[in-house]
Automatic annotation (TrEMBL):
Stated name of the protein: FAD dependent oxidoreductase domain-containing protein
The organism's place on the tree of life at top rank: Bacteria
InterPro entries the UniProt entry points to: FAD-dep_OxRdtase, FAD/NAD-bd_sf
Record keywords, A-Z: Oxidoreductase
Organism: Candidatus Glassbacteria bacterium RIFCSPLOWO2_12_FULL_58_11
Cellular component terms (Gene Ontology): cytoplasm
GO molecular function term, any single one: oxidoreductase activity
Gene3D superfamilies: D-Amino Acid Oxidase, subunit A, domain 2, FAD/NAD(P)-binding domain
Coiled-coil intervals: none
Lineage, highest ranks first: Bacteria, Candidatus Glassiibacteriota
Chain ranges of the FAD dependent oxidoreductase domain: 8-351
Keyword Oxidoreductase applies: yes
Length: 371
C-alpha cells in the first residue's frame, strides 16, 4: 500500500526544490510532496553559502534568471506574510587587467537586460569601503539592487507559503528507488514507504546524479565542489552597511556579517555529496589572495571556518527540464553558485513547464543537451 500519492514528488528540499514547490502551489496545483532525507530543509549546499544576491554575471542565460530573482527580493512575494529576507546593501565587483575588461562587458550585458549599476574608480571604491585600500583594483561595478539574504529564512518562506496552499514536506525521508514501468514513472520507494506519483522532480543538489540513476534517467555527471568561508568575529571598524566586495580578477570576496566580516577565497575542490570537511590549508590561499586584492584585511582574525558545496553540470550551466529518456522525470539541478539569486526564477521556470507538461524548445538548460 502506498504511504501517500501525489501528482508531483519533489526530491530535495533545498532552494531548487522548495522554490519549485512554492511556484506549483501558486499555480493552484494540489498533490505536491517534497521529500528531504535530512531532519531539516537546506542542510547542505543551500544552507552553507554566503547568501549573496548578484545580478552581474558572466553567463548571459543565467543573467536573465538573476535579474528576475533580484526583482523578487526587492519586492513582495505572493503568499508570504512578510517580504523575503533581504538587506539591500548592494554589490561591488572589482577587477583589474583583462578581468576588468570582461567585467565591463558583463556589466554592459546586464545594463541591456535592465540591471542598474554605477561604474566606480579606485578612489570611489576606497572612499566607500576603506579596507579596500592598497588593493590591485582598476575599477568597480556597484549594483545597488544586490545585497544579502538569509538562506534559512528564504527556504522557510518558500515552504510556509507552499504549505498554506497544501504542499506537504516529509523530512527524514530518503528515496531508495524510483519505480518506472515501460518508460513511465509510477512512484518512489522511500524510508517511510512507497509514494505513488506520476511526476518526479529531481532537485537533489549534490545527489542529483544518484537520483537520476535510481530512475534510469539520462546520465549526467554532476560535480560537487567545496568552497570555504571564514568569519572574523566582531570588528569595530567593519561597517555593516558596506556592500559585499568581490574581486573577479583574483576571485576573493568579503561581506559584512554579524558585526564583522565573512570572507572566501572562492576555492574549488571536488568533494563527495556530504557536509564537507574544512581544509586548514585553504586559509593560506585566502591570505595569498587578500595580499593582492585587499591587503588591509591580511591581519583580520578567523573566529570560525566552514565549507559548503556548489554542484555543477559538466558545462557549468543549469539543468532544468524534462528528461529525454524517462517520461515524467523532471530536472532542477546544477545551480552551482547561483541558487540563492536565481531560485525565484528557477522555480517559476520549472513550475510553468511542470504544469504544462511541455518543455521550452531551445532552452539552454535542457537535459537533452547531454545526449
Amino acid at each position: 500500500m502506498a504511504l501517500e500519492s501525489a501528482k508531483f514528488v519533489i526530491i530535495g528540499a533545498g532552494l531548487a526544490g522548495m522554490a519549485t514547490a512554492y511556484q506549483l502551489a501558486l499555480r493552484g496545483e494540489s498533490g505536491v510532496i517534497v521529500l528531504e532525507k535530512e531532519q531539516f530543509p537546506g542542510m547542505h549546499s543551500s544552507g552553507r553559502n554566503a547568501a549573496m544576491i548578484r545580478q552581474v554575471v558572466g553567463d548571459r542565460d543565467i543573467l536573465k534568471l538573476a535579474k528576475r530573482g533580484a526583482e523578487f527580493f526587492n519586492g513582495r512575494a505572493e503568499g508570504w506574510q512578510s517580504p523575503p529576507p533581504f538587506q539591500r546593501s548592494g554589490s561591488l565587483l572589482v577587477a583589474s587587467g583583462k578581468a576588468w575588461q570582461k567585467l565591463l562587458a558583463d556589466a554592459e550585458a546586464a545594463r541591456k537586460a535592465g540591471v542598474e549599476f554605477q561604474q566606480w574608480d579606485p578612489a570611489q571604491i576606497e572612499k566607500s569601503v576603506p579596507c579596500t585600500k592598497g588593493g590591485k583594483l582598476e575599477g568597480g561595478i556597484f549594483c545597488p539592487g544586490d545585497g544579502v539574504t538569509d538562506t534559512d529564512g528564504l527556504i522557510n518562506g518558500y515552504y510556509q507559503a507552499a504549505k498554506a496552499r497544501g504542499v506537504s514536506l516529509l523530512t527524514e525521508c530518503e528515496v531508495s528507488a524510483v519505480m518506472v514501468e515501460n518508460g513511465r514513472l509510477k512512484g518512489v520507494e522511500t524510508s517511510r514507504g512507497f509514494i505513488r506519483g506520476g511526476t518526479v522532480v529531481n532537485a537533489g543538489g549534490p545527489w542529483a546524479s544518484k537520483v537520476a540513476g535510481l530512475a534510469g534517467a539520462l546520465k549526467i555527471e554532476f560535480t560537487p565542489l567545496r568552497r570555504h568561508l571564514y568569519y572574523t568575529g566582531p570588528l569595530e571598524w567593519a561597517s555593516q552597511d558596506w556592500p559585499y566586495v568581490w574581486d573577479t580578477a583574483n576571485e576573493v570576496y568579503f561581506r559584512p556579517e554579524s558585526a564583522g566580516l565573512l570572507l572566501s577565497p572562492c576555492d574549488e575542490s571536488p568533494a563527495r555529496p556530504a557536509i564537507p570537511i574544512v581544509d586548514p590549508a585553504v586559509e593560506e590561499t585566502l591570505a595569498a589572495k587578500l595580499a593582492v586584492s585587499f591587503p588591509a584585511l591580511l591581519e583580520v582574525p578567523v573566529a570560525r571556518a566552514w565549507a559548503g558545496l556548489r554542484t555543477f553540470a559538466p558545462d557549468r550551466k543549469f539543468v532544468i527540464g524534462w528528461d529525454p529518456i524517462v517520461k515524467g522525470f523532471y530536472w532542477v539541478a546544477g545551480l552551482g553558485g547561483h541558487g540563492v539569486t536565481t531560485s525565484p526564477a528557477v522555480g517559476e521556470l520549472a513550475a510553468g513547464e511542470l504544469c504544462s507538461g511541455k518543455g521550452k524548445s531551445g532552452s539552454p538548460f535542457l537535459p537533452s543537451r547531454f545526449l
